[in-house]
Amino acid sequence: MPTAKSTQAARSRKDREPADVLERFNFQRDSLGYALRRTQVHAYALFFEMLGSLELSPARLTALSIIAMETDINQAALARRLNVAGPSVMKLIDALESAGFIRRTEVVGDRRRYSLVLTASGRAMLDTLRAKLAAYEARLAQNLSAAERKQLLALLARVTDTEA
């Protein structure tokens, strides 16, 4: 005579679908979005492992680099370059200014706007970052040849429709 436990186990086996039928729910396989997200998580974890002691997030590092390259950029232009909303860019600017890496300077003739200027401390941080970022990039691409890395960058630029 079957027990309640054996009946439940038999029913459970019967209700289970074969793996090949369930495969139709595997939205991760062959998903570019999923692969990009997994790569981003890996890249961020490695970034913080190798550069976390500098207390700069990837977003702050990018903002600092843009400010260094674009003399007298203002917060609205920085927000556009980063593709973020005004309040988000303000948090970045406040953090970089609090760290002493940038300063806001008044724009002559427009009391509502401020230019963002790299400080000596910000320049020193970028100099420190140069070697550390090279090591980070090398480790991130350690399984790629130089040609594959270049190709990957070009393909990713095409996905986002930007210049490589």
SSE topology:
Elements: H1 4-15, H2 19-22, H3 32-51, H4 58-69, E1 73-74, H5 75-82, H6 86-98, E2 102-107, E3 110-118, H7 120-140, H8 146-160
Features:
10% strand, 8 helices, 3 strands, elongated, mainly alpha, Arc Repressor Mutant, subunit A, 3-stranded antiparallel beta sheet
Structural summary, described in words:
With 164 residues, this protein is mostly helical. The chain has a domain at 57-132: Winged helix-like DNA-binding domain superfamily/Winged helix DNA-binding domain (Arc Repressor Mutant, subunit A, Orthogonal Bundle). Helices cover 64% and strands 10% of the residues. The chain is built from 8 helices and 3 strands. The chain has helices spanning 4-15, 19-22, 32-51, 58-69, 75-82, 86-98, 120-140, 146-160; strands at residues 73-74, 102-107, 110-118. It has a 3-stranded antiparallel sheet with strand order 1-3-2. Helix 4 crosses helix 6. The chain is elongated. The mean pLDDT is 87.
Report the C-alpha radius of gyration, rounded. Answer: 25 Å
Strand elements, count:
3
Helical content, roughly? 55-70%
- The tally of helices reads 8
Here the CATH topology of the domain at 57-132 equals Arc Repressor Mutant, subunit A
Instruction: Determine the N-to-C terminus distance.
Output: 71 Å
Short description:
The protein is 64% helix and 10% strand.
